[in-house]
Amino acid sequence: MALSLDALLERDAEFVARCAAPHQAALAAAVIDSDLPLTGKALYMLFSKCLMIKDSIFAQAESDNVHATMILYRSYIEHFLKHQYIFYRARELGSDEVGEQYYGQCQVRNELDSAQAQECRSRIFGQGFAYPDYWSDIPALFPEPGKEIGNLGEFEAVVRQFYAPRILEYLSVAVPASGAEESDREIYREMAFGYIEYKSHVYGEPWTDRELLVMSEEPRRGDFSLATCIHVYDAQRLLARASEDFLKTLDPMGSGAGVDMDSWRLG
């Protein structure tokens, strides 16, 4: 019997209560005094945000809002990819370096983007805000004053590592090398396709007009909504598995969150 959206929603609620929530609670407690506090924080927060976006995707799928589902799914993919990059990179490095970069250079990049947006607003609407020298102000914005961050080129090179196309390149090597099963590797391929396919919906591009007309017809609308929810469900299982593996990295003698991950596969 084919899986229905209602059945998937019930399965997801059970997954969150019995798997995602225990992992999040265990991770929050474990990272405080660990050697990887910033990496652990990033994994915790990105997983939490993915769960929030997932709930909104399911709500839009229930209401048959295809356009909103596509936009939210594209955002979900970005969060998922960052989470997975940080997880695999931390495992490769065996240090908190990737977490330091995420809350260091990437956070400063966010601060600079915000300042540039304010300057643009000021220029357009005459509000008197000026931010003329971005690079010279980085030391004041950096979360750890006095830390060496290199020149502008080195700084941007670190930030670019967290861009989705770079992450997809990295994961295309890291995931197979980890011994991931083919069914799990297919989830990453779906994410790569969705990242490219649904960009136009986020930016309001004209190509989406034709696609929405096609996708809004039944049975395509229902099929798309269900397929998207299945992809998101499968992806969050990988997020929980990463949390499990990360917990075991922090405490090799521990049992993680004590959840059997394979029992949550669909099918």
Describe the overall structure.
- This protein is mainly α and 267 residues long.
- Helix content is 73%, strand content 0%.
- It contains 12 helices and no strands.
- The protein has helices spanning 5-31, 37-62, 66-93, 97-103, 105-125, 138-141, 152-160, 164-177, 182-197, 199-202, 207-215, 220-250.
- Helix 1 (5-31) packs antiparallel against helix 2 (37-62), helix 3 (66-93) packs parallel to helix 12 (220-250) and helix 8 runs antiparallel to helix 9.
- The protein starts with a helix and ends in a 17-residue tail after the last helix.
- The model has no long low-confidence stretch (mean pLDDT 85).
Q: What's the topology here?
A:
Layout: H1 5-31, H2 37-62, H3 66-93, H4 97-103, H5 105-125, H6 138-141, H7 152-160, H8 164-177, H9 182-197, H10 199-202, H11 207-215, H12 220-250
Helix pairs in contact: 1-2, 1-12, 2-3, 2-4, 2-12, 3-4, 3-8, 3-9, 3-12, 4-5, 8-9, 9-12
Q: What's the rounded overall pLDDT mean? A: 85
The coarse silhouette is: globular
Rg computed from alpha carbons, rounded to a whole number of angstroms: 20 Å
Number of strands: 0
Number of helices: 12
Features of the shown structure:
single chain, 267 residues, 12 helices, 0% strand, mainly alpha
Short précis:
Helices cover 73% and strands 0% of the residues. It has helices spanning 5-31, 37-62, 66-93, 97-103, 105-125, 138-141, 152-160, 164-177, 182-197, 199-202, 207-215, 220-250. The protein is globular, with a radius of gyration of 20 Å.
